[in-house]
What does this fold into?
Amino acid sequence: MTLTELPAVRTVDCHRLNAVPPDVFDSAEPVHLKGLVNHWPAVSVCKEPAAAVEYLSRFWSEKPVTAYVGNDEMAGRFFYNESFTGFNFKSGTTTLAEVCEKLIDTRRVAEHTFIYVGSTPVDQGLPGFRDQNDIHVPGDDALVNFWLGSSTRISAHYDFPDNLACVVAGDRRFTLFPPEQINNLYVGPVDRTPSGQAISLVDFAAPDPDRYPGFSEALAHASTCAMQPGDAIFIPSMWWHHVEAMSSLNLLINYWWLQSPDLLGLPATALLHAMLAVRELPERQRSAWQTLFNHYVFEADESVYEHIPEQGRGYLAPLTNESARRLLAELLNRLNR
It folds into this structure.
């Protein structure tokens, strides 16, 4: 099965809504929100690269942004070098004005140079943009970022927050996998990554069945979403997504937010600590700790503490701001010993 043969994610026509239907935010699977941000002025104006640059020039600040640049050999795929000691692109700080100039420079196109600015706060790099182009999401403190560049391929990865990604300029294709397909995506290092998140090592443009035989099983559970300017996609927390920007200039605005209380810690930190403290134990001990994790974490309910008098339940009881602060302080104390 090829990427173009995958089933499409569920589509909701939002042309007349100008808002996300509330039930979408509770969806356990991705949802294509067709025409959700068609009413944004940016979508109407940024139909051609030169027009997009002119529009963005009204907002860009002089604050530096991080840009990634690669040559023809990478074919738009921002990835590792052959030895996995580094990456197949270079990065540096510049201004949005310089990035935009490069994006519409015909010499860049002829030389097959790829440019990418990812995950940059909109209010920092494009102050005032959201006054004209914005959408409501559940999180009052949502992170709102822009992703700007030439044609690119971003390897499959997951994000912890829920994600609403809105296409402003250029066509994009998302390929999506449920979290349980991690074994079939052949994920790379967790400590040296192209942009912060661990990524699938499979080249989706030319998957190697001998090196990654389980990828065909991942595709059997995958779905796709072909997006045009004005479209958006809701990606639930932890879903793997491969993103292909297919035009000479692409702009996407995304919103990240958490539906969990601020008092909770980051699961990724717990995962790293478990690698340090649990993974290398003898099998019988790992099995015992797996039982404890299931009991106290993954399968925890009232039975964990209901037999203990209320005043003595401590960390086993549902967390409050006060108990969460005490637990964090104890963790930091233990880690610093």
In short: The chain has a mean pLDDT of 95. Residues 283-298 form the longest helix (16 residues).
